[in-house]
Amino acid sequence: MATLKDVARETELTVSTVSRVLNNRGYISEETRNKVYAAMKKLNYQPNELARSLSKRTTNTVGVIVPHLDHPYFSKLISNLETAAYEYHYKLLLFNSKDKDEKETEYLEMCKSNRVAGIILCSGTVGTEKFEEINVPLITIERNLEHGTASVECDNKQGGRMAAAHLAECGCRNVIDMSGLKDMSMPADQRAEGFAEVCKKKGIQNTEIKIDSKLYATLDYREYIEQVLLDHPQTDGIFASSDVIAAQVIQVCAKRGIEIPKQLKLIGFDDVNIASLTTPSITTIKQPIKEMAHIAMSLIASANKNQMVPSRTTLPVTLVKRETT
Amino acid sequence: MATLKDVARETELTVSTVSRVLNNRGYISEETRNKVYAAMKKLNYQPNELARSLSKRTTNTVGVIVPHLDHPYFSKLISNLETAAYEYHYKLLLFNSKDKDEKETEYLEMCKSNRVAGIILCSGTVGTEKFEEINVPLITIERNLEHGTASVECDNKQGGRMAAAHLAECGCRNVIDMSGLKDMSMPADQRAEGFAEVCKKKGIQNTEIKIDSKLYATLDYREYIEQVLLDHPQTDGIFASSDVIAAQVIQVCAKRGIEIPKQLKLIGFDDVNIASLTTPSITTIKQPIKEMAHIAMSLIASANKNQMVPSRTTLPVTLVKRETT
Hints:
The structure is a homodimer. The first copy, chain A, is built from twelve helices and twelve strands. By secondary structure, chain A is an alpha/beta fold.
């Protein structure tokens, strides 16, 4: 199949001139335009970029790749990304990688072949090497990625500090930190650092327990939590890495007759809908998901205007007190 | 700007022949093809459909319009639609109408101008007259719409029957049905019919209370539930129209010292993630969301092949017993 280069060779024009014709960008003489169209016809060239030039809206599309769709964090994130996209006149193409390498690769190809204006890659577990050759703005949210254009994160370390300080205030002396995943490096890992730092300062006994990343796929942590509570019967405070995990801590404690917040204080992370729907409702560290989504979208807009974008943007978190502390 | 008709007139071909050239469909002689390309060039015709022909994937896109994104029902639905889309080689363009007329209209325009392969419209409240002129397959999920191609629903009436039968089995004598919305007509309204039918048969006192549709926008039903319980202190069973409402019934009961399931049995609808994350976890009527999503996508595929599609598809529901009954 003929390429842009073939059209350029045939017309004796540069690739960028041909591209400008296809995209209706800048001044192009009628003669040049006709020459390009004639060559396209002759070579049966099928430009993928044509759609963009023909209907400006067509590739005002941002690909969003998430590892879960039926998870309150990603629901809230997607909801806010959709709102932000609307403001920037972008549309959202949505992909669920299900933490599978091959799906993520395929979706990246789809994004490329559809000439998206940018890609937003949300925290996931698959390899990063595929992103090296992406030539569109690639924004990561809560994910470590060497080859991305820019990352957007919440201040995870500060979140960990705030959680520990709050548990200390509530009188906890033996706490468990369930804030990290085994075998995965995520910005969220810094929560444990901040949490440990404050526990040490306050003289609180802190046990850090990593969660098997396999559980992240099923979102069922109950057995794991039950074992942790059996192994650590003196626990009077838990810092969970998500409100989904915190909800399951409530369930396990109810089953084992541990009263929350009387006997055990619990603090989650994210502040998604589930946090206010459990009984008791969950005290949590709120990620500013709305603002993170907005910034991610603005970074794509800026990158597309060839403006410099910050390689990392970290937004503050806040403590939302509810009934589990 | 030149239109397809202008190209047809210039070439003395029919519009459908020109369209076939643009879409690379069917047999077209080289002569005809060249004639069309020449006319396109002469008239500076900018076909919106070109993208489809040039890169088959480009408009293998299905627009999904939902009234909420940060709601567990729509999260689960979107998650399953994404999975189904993948199987049919479709991509999802996601739009959140937020139950606003003007946004829904704008999104429909976007879908049209992007030449989507189909639109899936999920339960919402806005007017239906805009859908009259849509010339792509329009599938509704849990929504009444005169002008759609086809609707996909769960068996709401049977769900209501099952809920009443289960509460009766659990010994309830004074139940409240919170399964409908005021001022809105939805397939879900039939839940109340089925519920009332069985209550009557079993001789159970049934009070049907419609929910103000304004609450649906905020998803905060607590005050409303509290008032209902104050007004009906003898209540020993509640049928809630969603697991989100059921979760809030648990919260209000906890606050008022009503023990679930001991003093009051509770049954939700949907079976979304929240149903298994509350304490106690929620007995519910499960919508076969996975199958509904799959069928919706298959209907778009069939409609695009000009196959006849059923105008209404109703799928069975099941009772999922958990801890609230």
